[in-house]
Amino acid sequence: MAQRQVQSVDRALGLLWRIHRQPGRSLTELAAEADLLPSTALRLLATLARHDLIERDPDSRGYRIGSGAAILAGTVGADQQRLRDVLEPELRALAHAAREQAALGVLDGDRQFNIAFVDGASAAGEDVILRPRGLTRNSNLNATAIGKVLLAYLPEPRVEEIIAGLGFEQTARRTITDADRLRRELAAVRRAGCATSLDENTPEVCGIAAPVRDASGEVVAALSINGPTIRLPRARLRALLPILMEAAARSSRLLGQRG
Known about the structure:
The chain is α+β, with helices and mostly antiparallel strands. It is built from 10 helices and 8 strands. The protein has helices spanning 2-21, 27-33, 38-50, 67-73, 78-98, 120-123, 145-152, 156-165, 179-192, 234-254; strands spanning 54-56, 63-65, 101-108, 111-119, 136-138, 195-198, 205-213, 219-228.
């Protein structure tokens, strides 16, 4: 009995590692790769899912790493996980409405931390170049739409502290590499209530982002729509902006904001 239990643990952990290395694998694929009967693989996957170590995408039906694994790994804090749990339905609806990747990002120290992604373009059967392998942190707050939103609404002393520490590395053709230009950009973000990144962080990729506020009115996160420039020219970004702003407003209401 003990040997069978150890073997089950070994098989379950093997499946977990396969899902980590290749998110989106189906039950059939995982069972074949692990040389397991589909019924055996299903039982092991169900056990991992009960502990939130994996989850199944409701659209593709493929498996991905779950929130419990992120918490155990220390990559997502409890507050960030609660935020993700509350807002993920809105994120999913946004991705499907836009038919592009949607992301939820927060500020983690001096870096942008994208705590959730939903790949709407993949669900629509389109080619996607933006599928991340896991949660990501980005120190280029000057280059991403989410980063600009998170930076724009901080108290001015904190904004200047972060700007002083930015490397302003040019990672794409239109990266902002000058502190004064970034300050002007942040002022524009506050006026418009949204931010853009047009071939600034990643070549041939653009996006838009809007702030999410909590009950106190503080900006605690940002929602974004991202995609290849070839699919998101300026005209389409303008068309998607109302969808994004409505999703951000609904998300803020979910966090208790009024008005």
